[in-house]
Amino acid sequence: MPYGPGTFRVLLRMHIKAGMEREFEETWGRVGKIITEQPANLGQWLSRSADEEGVYYIVSDWIDEPTFRRFELSQEHLEHRTKLHPFRDGGSMATMHTVFRMTGAGEEVPR
Q1: pTM score, two decimals?
Q2: How would DSSP label each residue in the chain?
Q3: What are the pLDDT digits (tens) for 51-81?
Q4: 8-100 — its CATH code?
Q5: pLDDT tens-place string over residues 13-42
């Protein structure tokens, strides 16, 4: 499924309780399949802020908004959130529709 116009992106900003960052990262890695195994999910990324202590960003891309919204209301999503909730000390969510996608020259370089 191609990225491009219409791709729906979810951006979560999560503040993790002090001292729980490593356990949060490990748990996120273990439970992430709940998201990526969804047929409409295109992938997700966990990033740690370089500027703010305990702040993480999660980006999740979906083929479209309606399929994400159905997942958002599902029992699977509730179970996923329940596993990550003990680590959270706050956060926010932003959603957006992709307008353009440009790949960089380093896209194919193994990391």
Answers
A1: 0.87
A2: ---STT-EEEEEEEEEPTT-HHHHHHHHHHHTHHHHTSTTEEEEEEEE-SSSTTEEEEEEEES-HHHHHHHHTSHHHHHHHHHHGGGEEEEEEEEEE-------GGGGS--
A3: 999 999 999 999 999 999 999 999 989 998 8
A4: 3.30.70.100
A5: 999 999 999 999 999 999 999 999 999 999
In the chain, what are the domain boundaries? 8-100
Structure tokens at 100: 């353009």
Spatial distance between the Cα atoms of 36 and 8, rounded to a whole number of angstroms: 14
Tokens of 73: 């209301």
Q: What is the DSSP string of 59-74?
A: EEEES-HHHHHHHHTS
